Amino acid sequence: MSNTNDTKTGKLNIQELIGTILEENRCLAQSFSDEAFEDLIQKINSAGSIFCFAQGRSGFILRCFCMRLMHLGYQVYFCGETITPAIVRGDLLIVLSGSGETPATLAAVSSAKEHHAVTYGILGNLESSIAALVDMSIHLPGTTKLCRDHEPHSSQMVGSLFEQAAFLFLEAVILKLYQESDKDVGPLSSRHAVIE
After folding, report:
1. Least C-beta-crowded within 10 Å: which of 85, 138, 154, 163?
2. What is the mean pLDDT of residues 64-76?
3. Where are the domains of the chain?
């Protein structure tokens, strides 16, 4: 099977496809807010416990973030898991939603606020119910399932650009926390799983 560009059908090879994805994310990353980024890091470092919640593919991305926070020594939970305790004053809830309208995520924010926790949204739509409710948010203007006219053009499936941008943003948060940490979080860290 050939992996070269087929000019007759217009099919792209793997390098070109990945290049398209990387370029779309590079352009989107230029809009990231340093202020919101630093604010999230401050909130993570001052929280009693950190709770995360998202649905669908966003949920898997946020679970990756939870795992890395655990590796760094933070008390972190993904809402809905059986070992998740009650959220209380001084805790932080981080939610991820492209549409900003995901019902279960909106309910999680409402509950956290009722219990006096701080809420932070990573959102693709700032004109949304979740954006109006969270204490602080960052806008990742990728494509969402809403397919609004002012969303950036993307060659990818709906939602993919937002989800990729969210993963990169959260990895940048982890890198910053890692650089500022004096903990041993290398491959032999005592917090890495041993039952897999």
Report:
1. 85
2. 95
3. 33-180
Architecture of the 33-180 domain? 3-Layer(aba) Sandwich (3.40)
> Does the active-site annotation cover 114?
no
Q: How confident is the model at residue 30 (pLDDT cuts 50, 70, 90)?
A: confident
Pick the catalytic residue from 16, 24, 163, 171. Answer: 163
The pLDDT of residue 44 is: 98
Q: What is the mean pLDDT of the chain?
A: 87
What number of other Cβ atoms are within 10 A of residue 171's Cβ?
14
Alpha-carbon gap, residue 55 to 61, rounded angstroms: 10
Compute the distance between CA of residue 86 and CA of residue 22 in angstroms, rounded to an integer: 39
Which among 112, 118, 70 has a CA at the least distance from the CA of 87? 112
